[in-house]
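Could you please consider the sequence and fold appended to this message?
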Amino acid sequence: MVAKLAITIIAIGAAFGALLVNRQQRIDAVAEISRSQLRMTLHDKTISRLQAAVAESIRPDNLKALAFAQPWQWQQIPYRFDPFERRPSQYAAADIAPPTERVAPAKGGKKLTKTSGKPARKPITARTASATQERSR
């Protein structure tokens, strides 16, 4: 009888010990998750701080000061797209008319007339330094 009681007590103690180990593992897991979230928050703050520093250092006025502080002369990028510039070669090879000479059907669809009587703008042939470079000289 004493042996049965001793085995029962040992079995119950082992079950409680296993439950305590399980509980401690869950507490440790929650603590590790909490520490990971804290590290992620600190990393997010560091990223935000670094992004703000980069944004501050590449403001247009800072970039212009850095660019013109160099000992060499900057040149304009050739063949830059200018939406207001009209090049005659755009329309020479194609079978389309320039925007000022396009025709539209008249009322009734009988005759074609010009949509605008204004002359086309002259193409811009030569450009100098940009306005920013002119002001900085």
